[in-house]
Every structure is written in C-alpha cells, then in structure tokens.
Amino acid sequence: MNTQNNKTIGSYVTDDYRTAAVFEKYGIDFCCRGNRPLKQVCEQENIDYTGVLAEIENVKQEASTENQNFRSWPSDLLADYIEKIHHRYVEQAIPRLTELLGKVTAAHGAAHPEVYEIADLFRASAGELTKHMKKEELILFPVIRKLASGSGKTMTEPAFGSIQNPISAMLEEHDNEGERFRRIENLSNGYTAPGDACNTYRLTYQLLKEFQDDLHKHIHLENNILFPAAINMEASVKA
Ligand SMILES: [Fe+2]
Ligand SMILES: [Fe+2]
Q1: Is residue 169 part of a domain?
Q2: 14 located within any domain
Q3: CA of 161 to the centre of ligand 2 (A)
Q4: Angle at Cα 227 formed by Cα 222 and Cα 231, nearest 5°?
Q5: Which ligand is nearest to the CA of 85?
Q6: How confident is the model at residue 67, as a pLDDT?
Q7: What is the Å distance from ligand 1's center to 199 Cα?
Q8: From the CA of 77, how far away is ligand 1's center (Å)?
Q9: How far is CA 31 from CA 34, 73, 102, 155, 198, in A?
Q10: Which of 15, 26, 132, 143 sits 20 to 30 Å CA-CA off 48?
C-alpha cells in the first residue's frame, strides 16, 4: 500500500512542526489524535486532502526556525527540554492567567457569562495539568532517562511494571485536557474578544490561545515522539 496514504498526522508534524499550523487551520487534532492517517481523516471529515497536502508543501517552503528535528534528539534530552520549556511555561502561565481571568469575570461576567465557564474550565485544567506534569517528572521521565542512558538492562523493574502503563494514563490525561481546551476555544469564539472588551479581556484571550498552542506542541512531543521512543527502548532492553 502507498505509504503516503497511510502517513499519520503526527508524523507530518514530527517531520516538520510548521505543518501544525495547517492542521490547526482545518481543526485537525495533530497531538492527542495524531496517530490517525491524514488521508482517512480528510475523507471522514470532508476535507480536501489534496488541498491540505498542497498547503503542507507550501509551509515547508517558508523559511523558519520553528522546525527543530526533535525526532533526532536523544530521549533524555527531549525529556529535559519538555520539562524545562513546556512544564515551566505551564507553571508560570497558570498564576498569571488565573489572576487575569479573575479580573475579566469580575468586570465582564454580567455581560458575557461565558467567561465564568471559561474560568472554571481553566481552573480545572490548571489543577489537572499540575498533577499530570508532576507524575511525568517524578515517575515517567526518570525511567525514560535511565532507558536512554543505556542503564535500562541493570535497572530494577519499576513499580508500575511496563512503561506502557504510565504512558497509557498520560495519553488519557492529554485527551482530557485537549478536549477541555477545545471547549474553551469554542466558548471564546476562537479566542475572539467581543467588541466591548477592554485590553485585559483581549490580553486574557490572547494568552489563553498561547497556552493552548503551547499545550498542543507539548502533547505532540510526548505522544508522537517521546513516548513511542520510550516504548521502543523498553522493548529492546527486554529483547
Ligand atoms: Fe508533559
Ligand atoms: Fe504530558
């Protein structure tokens, strides 16, 4: 079978992160659900597959520093990068967005009640993501670093058994947060502030969008690159 026809959305983004913008534009989930073949998704969702392929080719021609080849990185370096760039970003963005959402709901909640729901969803996401990242940092990533350093053969079996177990749990949590942010995106009309919005309101939506974009990249790096590499490393240690 033609490999182009089976190529997954996640592997387009792994090959070149700039293609993520094309998938965002068409509302195609490339991170949590990146393991589906692009052609199949286009057929199911009535999207012009040839048009999407042409746009992918176009963005790949554009000069950009966005396309780091993360797939070529050792897994321990990628785990460090995710922790220091994406986890740290989430930790720093949460208090700032919480404060801004407090101001926006107080000033605009009466006229725009959807901001209450957005604030509730963000609060739930912040709590879940904080716990999620701690599980990665304290349980999963240390084992990935051991496997990457080549000391996998001598390490004692982790309490969680196969690495597939914590990875499955992490994938499920990624799906939950991806879904929660889709609801925020819909409620905020794609992060478009209403005509009477003040600058704080606009800034809040802009930062929420930035948070979602960062989350998509973060989940993509884990789901499509780091976790499959960890599963392969574990299999070769056990072989
Ligand atoms: Fe993470
Ligand atoms: Fe994660």
Answers
A1: yes
A2: yes
A3: 19
A4: 175
A5: 1
A6: 65
A7: 31
A8: 14
A9: 5, 19, 30, 31, 33
A10: 15
Last residue of a domain, one of 41, 61, 81: 61
The SS3 call for residue 179 is: helix
Query: For residue range 9-67, what is the model confidence (pLDDT) as tens digits?
Result: 999 998 888 898 899 889 899 988 999 999 999 999 999 999 999 999 998 888 666 66
146 band by pLDDT with thresholds 50, 70 and 90: very high
Contact yes or no for 224/20 (Cβ under 8 A): no
Tally of domains within the chain: 2
* Burial profile 162-173: b = 16 or more Cβ within 10 angstroms, e = fewer: ebeebbeebbeb
User: Tens digits of per-residue pLDDT, 58-111?
Assistant: 988 886 666 678 999 999 999 999 999 999 999 999 999 999 999 999 999 999
**Does residue 170 form part of some domain?**
yes
Q: 197: alpha, beta or left, given left = phi > 0 and alpha = psi -120 to 50?
A: beta
Report the first-to-last Cα separation within the chain, whole angstroms: 29
